Amino acid sequence: MDHSRVPVLEALREFRRRGDVVFGPPGHKQGRGVDPRVADVVGMDVFRSDVLSLNGLDDRRQSQGVLSQAQDLMADAVGADRAFFSTCGSSLSVKTAMLAVAGPGEKLLLSRNAHKSVIAAVVVNGVEPIWVHPKFDAERHLAHPPEPDDVRRRLREHPDAKGMLLITPTDWGTCADIAGVARVCHEFDVPLIVDEAWGAHLPFHPGLPAWGMDAEADLVVTSVHKMGGAIEQSSVFHLQYDRVSPEALKQREDLLGTTSASSLVYATLDGWRRQMVEQGHELLDAALRRAERIRRAAAELPGLAPMGQEVVDAGLAAAFDPLKIVIDVRGLGISGMQAAEWLRAARHVDVGGSDTCRISASVTHADDDETEKVLLDALHALADEADDLERRPPVRLPAPPALELEQAMLPREAFFAPVEHVPAERAAGRIAAELISPYPPGVPVVAPGEVITDEVLDYLRSGVEHGVLIPDAADPSVRTLRVVART
Ligand SMILES: Cc1ncc(COP(=O)(O)O)c(C=O)c1O
Fold first, then answer.
1. pLDDT, tens digit, for every residue of 71-117?
2. Phi and psi angles of residue 364, each rounded to the nearest 5 degrees, phi first
3. H or E stretch including 183?
4. Three-state SS for 388?
5. How far apart are CA 352 and CA 465, in angstroms?
6. Domain boundary among 330, 354, 388
7. Do 335 and 308 share a domain, yes or no?
8. Which atom number of ligand 1 is nearest to the Cα of residue 91?
9. Pfam families per the record (predicted)?
């Protein structure tokens, strides 16, 4: 295929050249009505390129096939049979992918280290979750994706399960053995869905972990805005083989998706694909070298311990994305959250993620010598000044098995059940009716239907006292919990 073509961008350029006058949405009419104070901040071009797909990028009959051509080019670029763009982020794409494989009341294997969008899908879709627990790495206090044998065991216990959803890479760059899990799923003739929100760059360089389609997954969802170059909310479904019907996927996407897709998202997805096909190898090569330099330099700093390929080992991760600079800061006597807050306040450096033990910074094709220096200077300053940072009460991390809570009710039933709010001191033994997800990374510690324990409460309460945010809990202070009412 001709990857120099960019159907969406070309249609947008043509729309702007023709100067079409639109009497439909968006009401700002390509910026004619925009308040200059808004344009002053976000730029006029945002509005000029904000166009509907129908009677905008394409005509009413979609006779130019603008979007379908762009999607075909994306599929070709990454080695998928089909690709579909979504403008609603992977939070929605994950729900759609799950719905395309398992309907209400049907069983789906789910990796329990899931982003909250997966647990939300369990509630909204009404699927019965069969949890596959991740591998807890007690030394690092990290959950790595489950292994093929874990999946095989659960499929044997639940031969009526409709498929499996695997989350890889994790927020911390650790990856699953996708090929191994796909083989197990296919032995049972069920599809493997991969939530590869963090992996949009993986198809474009052989030095990166294997990406889902190459590793024989059936359906892969990526967020191109995370490690790639499209704007926020740009997500892509990739499909191969015949275990997931493209028709079911399209129709279920249509149930959930917007009818006013953003042309800005489509255009930047289209441009990213061209850029990666033409220059991806070279750009990612440079990014990989840069990440290695940063990791080596950070390892020299007192109190900082960057994670590297040593995490790829039996019982731990199957691969590691070297573009994730994940640094354990416990040696500084502070938490990752404190380090992240200090880096932003004192150095204007926003690291992407932080938890009790570490921070993470994503290096992408967009980094250059200047951003590399800014990051390293900031890490230097952090190591120098950490002794002066306030010592906060520590987060009491539970032993890994304590994070595997008993599921007493289906998440959907618990979420919609009559509820009451009980003080934390009286919540142990009660069934949660809400998601409780420290953010970031947004992986629920408690899902609806799970039985709350003292250890988990102690972890959450000590986390909040330390400064962890729990935005989805009814009471973000976790002084009270929303639980299923006793009848
Ligand atoms: C593993 C995983 N899946 C899905 C999502 C949701 O993606 P989006 O932000 O594109 O909606 C995230 C977001 O952080 C994520 O980490």
1. 999 999 999 999 999 999 999 999 999 999 999 999 999 998 888 88
2. -125, -175
3. helix 178-187
4. helix
5. 22
6. 388
7. yes
8. 11
9. OKR_DC_1, OKR_DC_1_C
Q: CB within 6 Å of ligand 1 — which residues?
A: 89-91, 94, 115, 117, 167, 171, 195, 197, 223, 235, 442
- Same-domain status, 379 and 320: yes
Give the residue from 326, 325, 351 showing the smallest Cα distance to 338.
Answer: 351
Within a domain: 431: yes
Q: CA 227, CA 365: separation in Å to the nearest integer? A: 8
The 3-state DSSP composition of the chain as helix, strand, coil percent (nearest 5) reads 40, 15, 45
Buried/exposed code over 233-254 (b: 16+ C-beta within 10 A; e: otherwise): bbbbbbbbeebbeeeebeebbe
Q: Whose CA is nearest to atom 6 of ligand 1?
A: 91
The number of the ligand 1 atom at minimal distance from the alpha carbon of 442 is: 14
Q: How far is the CA of 168 from the centre of ligand 1 (A)?
A: 11
Residue ending a domain, among 338, 359, 388, is 388
Measured in Å, how far apart are the chain's first and last C-alpha atoms?
Answer: 63
Q: How far is the centre of ligand 1, averaged over its atoms, from the C-alpha of 32 (Å)?
A: 34
Ramachandran bin of 31, using left for φ above 0, alpha for ψ from -120 to 50, beta for the remaining angles: left
DSSP letter assigned to residue 324: E
Residue in this structure with the two tokens 């409780």, named with its chain if needed: 436
Residues in the chain: 487
User: Could you read off the pLDDT of 289-319 as tens digits, one per residue?
Assistant: 999 999 999 999 999 999 999 999 999 999 9
Nearest Cα neighbor of 435 from 456, 415, 420, 463 is: 415
Under 8 Å between Cβ of 62 and 34: no
In a domain, 365, yes or no: yes
